[in-house]
Amino acid sequence: MAKVVQFFKESYEEMTQKVTWPTWGELQNSAVLVLIASFIIALVVFAMDKGSTFVLDTFYKSLSN
């Protein structure tokens, strides 16, 4: 039990004294960057999905003729 208490004491000390936390502005900038990157990735995946659907539909239609 003493090891668990020691672990929490050391964790608290590290989080309060050794970790450098970002400022509010840095946090907002990072959040905006993640939002933009996520949107771009979603658009790429959407385009790949629509493109592959078009190619496969065209391929299957050519086989049925």
Overview features:
89% helix, 65 residues, 2 helices, mainly alpha
* Rg for CA atoms: 25 Å
Oligomeric grouping of the chains? single chain
The succession of helices and strands, N to C, reads HH
Number of helices in the DSSP assignment: 2
Profile the largest sheet. Answer: none
Number of strands: 0
Low-confidence spans: pLDDT under 50, at least 5 residues? Answer: none
Please state the structural category. Answer: mainly alpha
Gross morphology: elongated
Q: Please, what is the average pLDDT?
A: 95
SS strand fraction: under 5%
- The first-to-last residue Cα distance is 75 Å
Helix content: over 70%
Plain-language structure description:
This protein is an all-alpha fold and 65 residues long. It contains two helices and no strands. The termini are far apart.
How would you concisely characterize the structure shown here?
It contains 2 helices and no strands. It has 65 residues and is an all-alpha fold.
Write the layout of secondary structure elements.
Elements: H1 2-18, H2 24-64
